[in-house]
Design a protein that fits this description.
The protein is an alpha+beta fold and 184 residues long. It has a single domain (3-182), classed as Sandwich (Jelly Rolls). It has five helices and eleven strands, in the order ββαβααβαβββββββα. The strands form two sheets. Strands 1, 2, 3, 4, 6, 7, 8, 9 and 10 form a nine-stranded antiparallel beta sheet that branches. The chain has a two-stranded antiparallel ribbon with strand order 5-11. The two termini are 17 Å apart.
């Protein structure tokens, strides 16, 4: 279930909510867009990138126009992905981008951590969740030890996702997705 947990920078938990309206409001307060999207038709497990994007065409086009995105694609990572360990490691350190980081979860889940002001917002995103992290916002992402996600990504630049690592070790103080989900 979609969950927002807000922590102090020292990883002390302040609050947790699963109410999507509250999640959207709290994230809006730090400049992050959170929405729920519905497909205009059912998708098969073998749906192509074009079929997936077309199923969410209205919402995708609205954001592309609003933020001047140039491209959209679909990324899929499963437990049998040959590069799953390297992919996970690439996202686990705090970083920024000169572009938005936009993810819409078509399937599966992932855990975003957004470091804003003096707090860290951890958002467990699941199917139907759209998250847009503004450019230059420190964050990190955990797709889990056994990843299972399919996401639509939107980009304003042709090169897409380019990380600028902050060098801050804060991410190591927070739970991994696997611990967040199980409460361990």
């Amino acid at each position: 279930m979609t969950t927002l947990s807000i922590y102090r920078e020292n990883a002390e938990l302040l609050e947790t909510t699963r109410d999507v309206d509250t999640i959207a409001t709290k994230l809006h307060g730090i400049g992050v867009l959170f929405e729920r999207w519905e497909a205009k038709r059912a998708l098969s497990d073998s749906a192509s990138q074009d079929e997936i994007i077309d199923a969410y065409r209205g919402s995708v086009d609205r954001l592309m126009t609003m933020y001047h995105f140039k491209t959209a694609d679909v990324i899929s990572v499963t437990p049998d992905h040959p590069d799953k360990v390297a992919l996970r490691k690439k996202f686990l350190d705090e970083h920024t981008h000169s572009d938005f980081e936009v993810r819409f979860f078509v399937e599966g889940c992932g855990l975003f951590f957004i470091h804003a002001v003096d707090k860290v917002h951890a958002i467990l995103c699941e199917r139907g969740d759209l998250l847009s992290v503004p450019a230059n916002t420190p964050h990190w992402f955990d797709l889990g030890a056994e990843p299972r996600l399919k996401c639509i990504r939107l980009f304003t630049t042709p090169e897409g996702w380019v990380a600028n690592y902050t060098g801050n070790a804060i991410a190591k103080s927070f739970p991994t997705m696997d611990h967040f989900v199980t409460g361990a």
